[in-house]
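As promised in the previous annual report, we have extended the structural survey to additional targets. Below is the entry for Response regulator transcription factor.
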Amino acid sequence: MTRVLLVDDQELMRMGFRMVLDAQEDLEVVGEAGNGADAVELAAQLRPDVVLMDVRMPVLDGVEATRRIVAADDAKVLVMTTFDLDEYALSALRSGASGFLLKDTPPENLVSAVRSVASGDAVVSPSVTKRLLDRFLGDGGGELRDASVLDALTEREREVLVLVAKGLSNTEIAGKLFLSEATVKTHLGRILSKLDLRDRVQAVVLAYETGLVKPGEA
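The corresponding structure token record, generated without further manual editing, is:
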């Protein structure tokens, strides 16, 4: 059973999410919060598997709440936003969220996303994350991180990371580098381990923030 905490300042929105999730045999909503501060407290108390997190809330926004929940290792966070190019969503990804969905996503996609996050996957496609980074780092508004963090990677791992950041799937990367898909997955796993990253989404963010990939590159 996957335990879910709902966080949104709109009660009707929480009610809708609850109806969708509780209708699944393998999902259970264990709590609700109307702001980020309550979310942090409930995550520590209830230890849900996944927190479905709004980003724009009173008292404490979803970005800071995400950072605190992830830092405490209390749950994985799936951010819900109204706009697909939302600076709050990007900030939440930087803070450790495992991905984001639009609030008007179809119910079956919401259910699939919660299951994916619970199993350790990221639910934001690299291409969507790339659009976010193109938008918010493309004008020079983001300060680059020290690229020496990438020194731990082999040349092949750097190649894989570049292609991940450019939005290619594992299958596409395998074809481009003449590798098996299993080998690509192994390389990606080593990249995440060496760079202390949670998932593919954070790998894409880091590739941009270190300048390994430049906004606007095809």
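The beta strands are 2-7, 27-33, 50-54, 76-81, 100-102. The first strand starts at residue 2 and ends at 7. These points will be discussed at the next consortium meeting with the crystallography subgroup.
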